[in-house]
Amino acid sequence: MLMFYNFVFYFLILSGLWSFVSKRKHLLSTLLSLEFIVLSLFFYVFFVLLFYFELYFLMYFLTFGVCEGALGLGILVSMIRSHGNDYFNSFNMLQC
Amino acid sequence: MNWRLNICFISFMLLFIFSLLNLIMGIYFCLLDITLFIEWEVVSLNSMNVVMTLLLDWMSLTFMGFVLFISSMVIFYSYDYMEGDPFISRFILLVLMFVLSMMFLIISPNLISILLGWDGLGLISYLLVIYYQNFKSYSAGMLTVLSNRLGDVAFLLGIAWMLNYGSWNYIFYLSYMINDLEGLMIAGLMTFAAMTKSAQIPFSSWLPAAMAAPTPVSSLVHSSTLVTAGVYLMIRFNFLLVGSGMGKWLLLVGGMTMFMSGMGANYEFDLKKIIALSTLSQLGLMMSILSMGYIELAFFHLLTHALFKALLFMCAGVIIHNLGDCQDIRFMGSLVVFFPLTSVCFMVSNLALCGFPFLAGFYSKDLILEMCLLSELNVISFLFYFFSTGLTACYTFRLIYYVMCSSFNYNSSNGMMDEGWFMLKGMFSMVFMAVIGGSMLSWILLKIPSMVCMPLILKMLALIVTMMGGLIGYQLSILYYSSNSLSMNFIFFSSFLGSMWFMPYMSTRGTYIYPLYSGSKILSSFDQGWCEYFGAQGMYSVFKSLTVFTQKYQTNFLKSYLLLFFIWFFFLVIFN
Question: What EC class does the entry list (chain A) (predicted)?
Fold first, then answer.
């Protein structure tokens, strides 16, 4: 019966994605939105798995999500080390 | 004289032994009328044979013997002349390679192997002319090699035309070639090639310019061997030459060359250039006599001329060497006091050149003139022959006056002496041959004496012309001071005759001036103009603007790409 609340989860993920692609100044805000998407996905997967009584699978998902967050922070740190800040303006696609 | 293990002495011994061998074999072959063809079949495939052939008959063996003898004497002489030169090994090796190329040319009945020697001669004479590395030698070498190169082109075209006959052994086809158009073409092309190599009239400007070479090189190359290569080619092709009508052309060209260089030598003041012009005159004589068909006489004169001309260059070399490399005859005078032995050799070779009775030149030259009087000549050629003989005596005696008999014109503190022993020994062997060579050869070469019958005045004509020419030459060159000199009054004729009828100017400035001028125009309008507009700078600016334009659309915010990705994902999800 909680399947009928799919709309809420879709809205959560969508808003996270929206915030991901919005034009912002800092890389950290992009990473934050990425974490928000992971969190909402976690919520969604919890309610799906709860119905089939296989909640252990959620642990895999959580591990991978946390690693991804750590990786993103590592990229942020190396970018600050090379460019001095984490503004998006300081790098472009052409790498020149 | 200590015989050290020097490249000069080793090559002298080798060449001398080979020359004696060749001379003996040549006389043997001549008396027994033997001709030897030695063939080596390199490759044979169905009907195509690649065969290397050597032709050994009396003419090639005798010529080889003489060439080797003169080159051995010249190498011996150059041990002393080139003393102190750090690159003497290179010099001797170049001379030896020259002799090798000449060998290839002499003993081949095949156009391809003649080409091997012909191109080798042209190349090595260029390398020898530029031996002293200064600008004058470089320009002289360029003139030499490019004039010779014209003849090489004609030779190569002749080889191409020769393909019509099936093989390149021209010796066997000479009697068939007269009837065909291809034979006429080959005759014309070979005549052209011989005219450039032997410096006949349109191409005669390289020979005086090539005197920038060291004197042993001039003595070997520009007097006896390189310039006689063309004459030898014409001797081999003589049947075709006379039969196809090219002989008429060559008679006039040779006569004009004789006349022009005889006149030019009377105006020259550089010792080696006078001798070069006298070589040119004798070459014209050889060419015109063989265009009439008398090949034994031409060959005879070739050999005797080689002997005394090489000797003359050697004497000139001794004089130049002792005068501190001064070649101007206005600085020489009374040298007979300082160089007694050299003066003996100088006088002998000069008198042999004039045709003094019973020296080497007399037998060949007098016989040539008598044969000319007996054959049907036109007046112009007759005048060319006899006037040039007189001019020969004229410039010879002028040279003798300036070098030997006039008052002393050089520095008073000098070290002129005749004690270059190797040079003297080389010259003595040559003077021995110059004295007896003519009579020796006349007994050996001319097997059947020709019947000569003419009135007394014509018989004496050669001697009269020579004596008058000598007298005029001597008297006209005695220096008087005057304010109204005849050669200055007729300055056009003096400069015309003295600069070889302006042909050197045509060969040098006439050929480079328009290409150089148009080259500068092309440089300014093409290289620095339109080519830059369409090529380097123009394309650079076009590419730069395009790239700037492209870069403008690529310098985006990273998030835009993520936004596009998100929109695509959204559509996929909605319309799944």
Answer: translocase
